[in-house]
Specification:
447 residues, alpha/beta, 8-stranded mixed sheet, 4-stranded mixed sheet, 9 helices, globular
């Protein structure tokens, strides 16, 4: 009997994964509501508190971080009226003592938190957006002088308020947390406090989008302008329990596939799907060179967390006393913000949070078959714990590619693909009828 020979032919050009999906009209509507006038109003109000230094007054009703956080809380409660009681708003407080570093007196540390609870009590997933409320000037210990903090990080807090305004209209299955941290400039104090709470209370925190400086488009020194890109910083290797996971990561070549890196890919694909002519640029670092941000305490506890920040930094308007020298105006003032660029970055956040909160949870027990040598790849999984699923995407990319390059759709819970696992990485997502994908799940070994 003759042996049958056949050849499988595939077009050697990979389509961008985002071209295989459509826009969700509900998310398009939310994205369209981001308003530059609202953002300007929020920035001017925040700057109007004079200083928001962590050690500034918490009792003055007009000046200082206490007045600022009360105003943010008021805005959250105002938007909470749209939610039929589903938005819980509070200040997470802790009195911290002098630490010999950046705290020199007992200080009332307070994070402003708004939890938009999901409609499904059985769905415990949480997606978080953050910025930091505190500001500073050249001397990080100076809590007296004006520290407007328009971009650093009034932009992150204004983005939170605008996203809360828009998404409070929603009825998402999962929950969204909006948080304005205090103490970032004094050593990430507020984010450490909330990360500990999330760990102690076993939050199912699946994503943190930390926004820190997202409204400047002109760099200092080089005078370059960039209004079409935002950077997203993410770690590839998990800092949490790396010693226990290192051997498996090395064996499978997953150095570029930590949960935060997967979240960054998700943000890039989703943001670029909804914002025209805009690029989310992946940066393979947890944060800027030798610097840190409020997502880091969450990363250190094993939560997926990334930093979104402008492509260009302007150091004349960051951590500076307000002054004019040699014809150069220094200080973090509103007139140096690019509000159209700012708007796009807020739209990225809104689209991603909405897509995540509408998505099912990730498929369970995702496995790749390694029982026999073959040039095919066999994957299997079980349906998610929560959410209504219309099918699954199997994601594939070459080992040197930064983004997923192909998506295969199936309604089944297993698939066999004519691609070698030697040459590609794979993951699986659950997806709804309206195209809202879960975060990608990397397969474990099935022996």
């Amino acid at each position: 009997m003759k042996k049958l020979l056949f050849t499988l032919c595939f077009i050697p050009v990979f389509m961008n994964a985002q071209q295989t999906v459509h826009q969700d009209p509900e998310i398009v509507n939310y994205v369209s509501q981001v308003n530059t006038d609202s953002l300007k109003g929020h920035i001017n109000k925040l700057v109007g508190f004079g200083t928001r230094h962590t050690m500034s007054s918490v009792t003055d009703t007009k000046r200082g971080i206490g007045a600022a956080r009360n105003w943010v809380m008021k805005k959250f409660r105002e938007y909470g009226k749209n939610t039929n009681g589903r938005m819980e708003v509070f200040i997470q407080n802790q009195t911290i003592q002098p630490d010999g570093k950046r705290i020199n007196k007992p200080t009332d540390l307070g994070n402003v938190v708004a939890i938009l609870h999901g409609t499904d009590p059985a769905d415990k997933r949480i997606f978080m957006m953050s910025g930091h409320l505190d500001s500073r000037v050249s001397d990080v210990m100076n809590g007296r002088d004006d520290a407007p903090g328009a971009n650093d990080d009034g932009s992150g807090v204004a983005a939170l308020i605008e996203a809360a305004r828009i998404l409070s209209q929603s009825k998402f299955r999962a929950s969204i947390v909006f948080v304005a941290f205090s103490g970032e400039e004094q050593g990430l104090l507020g984010s450490k406090m909330l990360a500990e709470k999330a760990e102690n209370e076993n939050w199912e925190l699946e994503a943190l989008l930390n926004n820190d400086m997202i409204s400047n488009s002109l760099s200092s020194e080089t005078n370059l302008t960039n209004t079409h890109q935002v950077r997203i910083f993410s770690e590839g290797l998990p800092q949490y329990e790396l010693d226990k996971k290192a051997q498996n990561i090395r064996n499978l070549g997953l150095e570029n596939d930590g949960r935060s890196r997967q979240l960054a890919r998700y943000i890039k694909e989703t943001g670029e799907r909804y914002i025209d002519n805009f690029q989310v640029k992946l940066i393979y670092r947890n944060d800027r060179f030798l610097r840190g941000g409020d997502h880091t305490p969450f990363v250190e506890k094993g939560f997926p967390a990334v930093r979104l920040t402008e492509f260009n930094e302007n150091f004349n308007h960051q951590h500076q006393d307000i002054r004019k020298e040699n014809g150069i105006q220094y200080g973090d003032l509103p007139e140096f913000m690019d509000f159209e660029y700012f708007k796009k970055n807020v739209q990225v956040n809104v689209s991603v949070l909405a897509n995540l909160a509408k998505s099912p949870s990730g498929p369970e027990n995702v496995k790749i078959d390694v029982n026999r040598l073959t040039n095919f790849t066999a994957l299997s999984w079980k349906q998610p714990k929560s959410g209504t699923v219309s099918g699954y995407y199997i994601l594939m990319r070459e080992t040197d590619a930064s983004m997923w390059q192909k998506k295969f759709f199936t309604k089944e819970t297993s698939i066999q693909l004519p691609y070698s696992k030697d040459n590609y990485f794979f993951a699986v997502q659950a997806v709804t009828a309206s195209g809202n994908e879960s975060l990608a799940v990397i397969p474990a070994l099935a022996r």
